[in-house]
Fold:
Amino acid sequence: MTKKIQIMIADDQELIRESLSIVLSANTDMEVTGLASNGRELLELIKNSKKAPPDVVLMDVRMPELDGVEATHAVKEQWPQVRIIILTTFDDDEYVFNALKYGASGYLLKGVSVPELSSAIRTVAQGGAMINPGIVTKVVKFFNQMAQSSLATDPEETKDAAVLGHTERNIALLVGRGLSNKEIAARLSLSDGTIRNGLSAALAKLNLRDRTQLAIWAVQTGLVHSEVQP
Structure:
């Protein structure tokens, strides 16, 4: 029997978290294991759960006591394997950068359809990333603004692209442009396995956690504006 995707939901509106729990539990491959009204409650739920940490957390942004951004930071520090999808509204796009920087794997608008949300959960549970098309432009714009800001990077922590090999550099560049592994493989005429290995090597050399952080790094360092090297 295939293991169900374990999900926790954090939202300060009871109606929303209960509704999400009902509709997601209707999926045969998903199980909702906990509901929290704020980030602090979520951390306690995960900590005290008799089961393993959830595979995916659906995280509201604006919550009392501990908001979604800080809760994302705390969850990823203690349980880095947990995937987080931020659920938000158009008014919350100032949170985009920090939520992704702290390791959120997805960023969806509230009001997304149930099939789209279910698909996003499956994608993220398998290690992918999912950003609602409605805010992709805002994300890119925000990243570029951060890249031009003196606060964008810490000189002590930022590593130069020179540490990357030829293929690793190209992969990082294309990840920064939002391409999937399959698209990168087609663009570089390489196998999917080569792309996966190159991505892992780039993350290790740059001391980054995941492809989201790599995308942010590529924008911050300006690599994303470079040309792919033949």
Notes: The radius of gyration is 18 Å. Residues 27 and 118 are 8 Å apart (CA to CA). The chain has two domains: 5-144, 161-225. The longest helix spans residues 133-147.
